[in-house]
Amino acid sequence: LVVNGWAESNLKDSPIRAEYWLQHLLQIHRQRSAASLEEPNAPNAVTYYYDLTPDAELFALVIRAWANSNSREATEKAQVWFQSWLDLEQQQQNVFLDPSKSSAAPFTPAISENSQLVSLEVLRSWSRGSRVDAGELAERWLRKTYPRNTNSARPPLTLFPLFFEQHNEKDTEDVIPSLEIDLTAQPSIKAYSYVIDAYIHAQKRFKFNVKAPIAVNPKDLIISAERILMEMMRVHSSALRNDKEKFHDVFSASFINVISALCRVDLVERAEALVIRLEKYCLPNQEGFVTAYNAMLQCCQRNLFVSSGVRERNFCTQRLNRIYNRMIQQHDLLPLFPAIRFSAMHAFGEANRNSNSAPMKVIHIFQSIPRDKICTADYNALINSWRLSSTSSALSEMETLIQKMKAEGEFCEALRPNSETYVAIILAVTNSVSPKSYIDSEFWLNEFLCLGKSRIGDAESLLILATIIHCCLRCSAAAVSSSGKDSPGNVALRAYEKMKGIGITPDYQTYIDLVTCIGSAQKKQGESDELILRIVQVCIDEGKMHPNMIDQLQKIILSHNFHNFFDQAQVTGAWSRNIYKK
């Protein structure tokens, strides 16, 4: 219980504390064993208490503690403790690696159930390791523990785990003795799943590991996971092929992990083939298919987003339609799941990007949602699909939907517009060709701010501020004539001040656009210099100064004001990382 507590703990020193108890029991075991061997018949001889001998479960828990620690040395520790367990087990059974040292029958190195338990934890440590070759190493461990060729003339490498890292494959052949063995045991489903997880986890860690081998292809890691999954199916599926519910319970987790991983590396065709295979043996509408189809739909959306050519986009759109239509045919209830709806609507919205037609597929999905199931996210997906289209009525359709949301939101909070809603409409307005788009953007900014600081994200606020100020700059550069408070410069300044009021600080490019917009709107050069330089001083204080700002200021403010400011500017300790005072 004590070691199990440390194994499941997230404390940094948990594996060390778990090891302490195992080492303590091992020490007691060695002392009592030595005393019994020295004077086995002495009247006061120490009795060998087997109940204090560490068992396989204790070793497994220590290895699990290391696996849960995410330590770099977890896998090495796992192998060391596994070797220690084998030594203890062989000592208890009075079995030796060299048959000539024993009068008993020649040693047949079949892995025991206890050793399989400990070996599983070693595999688990690989599945949670940080090495990009963890999947390959986990598979090698599996192969040596359960040789697929039962006529192999060598024992499992798990009998010699320390050779695993110290020798290459050829060296290992020379070191391990040749023995006649007969191993018929097959890897368990859990053992296979740990190897699959090791490959998938290695792919996730690949982009974060600066020491990763250049030759490693992340896609190959996931293809290897798929190969292990197919082997697991061949070994274990025959008994469950006629029990679709149990088949799903046993295999769906590994299937879904591989399908999601294939989609992450844009191998959606292979993911689709796995889903079709899983559908053959499982009942429809089960929860695992939600994750699988959701991953494929999201992958289709990403592929459409990065596709530029017409032919490539058409191919991606056809694949999206094929996957969605199969989902409808095989699993009629899946569209009722929110995650599926959102992914499908966003994917079809992306497929309709820059199209002169309305997003009919998205509209159809939206209209098929039961009335009591509609939420703000459904409206947002439809609004975004209109934003991506190039139809002339897109903006008015978006405004109509938002007004409908506000009306329905009076009675149901789940239907009220949120920050994502207003981000979409502001992006659409600022992207329109209307010369007064910057004025409309300020209206929607005020609606956005009415949500309150607690319901507004910083990233969304930064995006909105940068978009509105850039729109003001564009309209100002296009010689949009508007005087007084509705000039592009004043609208940009008000947007800046409102966002500063809720704690949002612009990035360096937004500061450049802001001062350029104010400078472009002035009727006479120099009349806005004081305001511009005040903003520049704030930019300096926030560490957002940039060389492009210097170049722009020289164009929009009077020369003597420029030199006087930078001769007296308070830059000590507040200068940007991009500008160095010499």
Write the layout of secondary structure elements.
Layout lengths: L1 H6 L6 H25 L17 H14 L4 H20 L19 H15 L6 H12 L17 H4 L2 H7 L13 H18 L11 H19 L7 H21 L3 H14 L5 H20 L3 H21 L7 H14 L8 H9 L7 H13 L5 H16 L9 H12 L6 H13 L8 H20 L10 H14 L6 H14 L7 H13 L5 H10 L2 H10 L14
Helix pairs in contact: 2-3, 3-4, 3-5, 4-5, 5-6, 5-9, 6-9, 9-10, 9-11, 10-11, 11-12, 11-13, 12-13, 13-14, 13-15, 14-15, 15-16, 15-17, 17-18, 17-19, 18-19, 19-20, 19-21, 20-21, 21-22, 21-23, 22-23, 23-24, 23-25
Overview of the structural elements:
This protein is mainly alpha-helical. The chain has helices at residues 2-7, 14-38, 56-69, 74-93, 113-127, 134-145, 163-166, 169-175, 189-206, 218-236, 244-264, 268-281, 287-306, 310-330, 338-351, 360-368, 376-388, 394-409, 419-430, 437-449, 458-477, 488-501, 508-521, 529-541, 547-556, 559-568. Helix 3 packs antiparallel against helix 4 (74-93) and helix 13 (287-306) runs antiparallel to helix 14. The chain starts with a helix and ends in a 14-residue tail after the last helix.
